[in-house]
Amino acid sequence: MRAWSGRRGQGAPAPHSARSLLSRLSLLPFLAALAALASLALLAAGCADVEGLESEGRARDVDAPLVLWPGYSPAPPRRDENPAALVPVPDVPRVPSGSMADAKPLAVLDADIAGQGQTPPAAKAVRRPELHDVTGDGKPDLLMAVNLDPRDSELRVYTVRDSVVTRVLVLRGVLAGVELAAGHLAIREPTKDPRYVSVIDYLWDGDSMSLWNLTLDDARTSQTPQPGGGSP
């Protein structure tokens, strides 16, 4: 028998290395299971991933709106309910030039309001008349604003059609601002949120002042109506 020289063979592992390898192999299933459990725990706890995203739980269900009385459709507004209805102003002289600059502003306003069965306003409640072309015919139209009380006002716009003075728009509300830009007449009114105002945009379409757009805009410095005049 050949005596053992104490030198290990090239292919035979050392006894402690074999035991270590067997131990690591036996631990692999346990380590894999432990890693899977850790991943599930992180997801359940809503922990942030490496990109900083967090789970907020189950998404809320989105329901379609429930339409009540779907078969009902309202009738169109009557002439006296339509703010953009064309109404000839009674009892004022004709204007052959077609320009509202040739009409008397207070006489037009009083005749229009009286024609509706109402009492014309006191002169101190009427703001300074404004002449601007809002119908696009190159001739000035008349814009009048009346302060009904410290908060509410009324805006009336007049033009000339076939020599007849005609009201083309009447709006009543809290006029936070009246603006003209590129033929558009924008009416600004407060909303329940003091940071914003609603903007109603009217534009002459060749026959009437049509509602062009309705948007929200940032609120600006208050333009409280001042009795006895001032720009709208």
**Record field, number of beta strands:** 9
The poorly predicted ranges are 1-19, 222-232
**Number of H- or I-type helical stretches:** 2
Biggest β-sheet description: 5 strands, antiparallel
Global geometry: elongated
| Range of strand content | 25-35%
Helix content: 10-25%
Mean pLDDT: 80
Determine the structural class based on helices, strands and strand pairing: alpha+beta
- What is the gyration radius calculated from CA atoms? 40 Å
Instruction: Strand order, main sheet: write it out.
Output: 1-5-4-3-2
Straight-line N-to-C gap: 122 Å
Query: In sequence order, what are the helices and strands, one letter per element?
Result: HEHEEEEEEEE
Short note summarizing the structure:
This protein has 232 residues and is an alpha+beta fold. Helices cover 18% and strands 27% of the residues. The termini are far apart.
Keywords:
232 residues, alpha+beta, 5-stranded antiparallel beta sheet, 4-stranded antiparallel beta sheet, 2 helices, 9 strands, 27% strand, elongated, disordered N terminus, disordered C terminus
Description:
By secondary structure, this protein is of the alpha+beta class. The chain contains 2 helices and 9 strands. It has helices spanning 15-45, 105-115, and strands spanning 87-88, 130-132, 141-147, 153-161, 164-173, 177-181, 184-190, 196-204, 209-218. The strands form 2 sheets. A 5-stranded antiparallel β-sheet has the order 1-5-4-3-2, with helices on one face. Strand 7 and strand 8 (196-204) form a beta hairpin. The protein is elongated. The N and C termini lie far apart (122 Å). Mean pLDDT is 80; it is low at 1-19 and 222-232.
